[in-house]
Structure to design on (81 residues):
């Protein structure tokens, strides 16, 4: 599958459907170029390895996910070289 969209569109969709994950991306974006960037990135990979923490059934958010036909699932080996 190939997806083409403006980054702003994808970011807005992520905020509506996966706010927990987007908060992590915001934390990482703020750390880019800083001394803690690598540590922050590792912490985010660890958080993403726990899908029940990252994709909880949040009232209203699940409805948005269904509306857009979007789902999240863990990927084995995420962030591992």
């Amino acid at each position: 599958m190939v997806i083409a969209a403006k980054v702003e569109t994808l970011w807005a969709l992520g905020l509506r459907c996966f706010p927990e994950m987007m908060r992590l991306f915001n934390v990482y974006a703020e750390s880019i170029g800083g001394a803690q960037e690598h540590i922050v990135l590792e912490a985010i990979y660890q958080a993403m390895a726990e899908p029940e923490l990252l994709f909880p059934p949040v009232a209203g958010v699940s409805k948005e996910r269904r509306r857009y036909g979007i789902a999240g699932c863990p990927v084995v080996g995420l962030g591992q070289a």
User: Anything to note?
Assistant: Residues 7-68 form one domain. The chain has a mean pLDDT of 77. The chain is about 60% helix and 0% strand. The two ends are 24 Å apart (CA to CA).
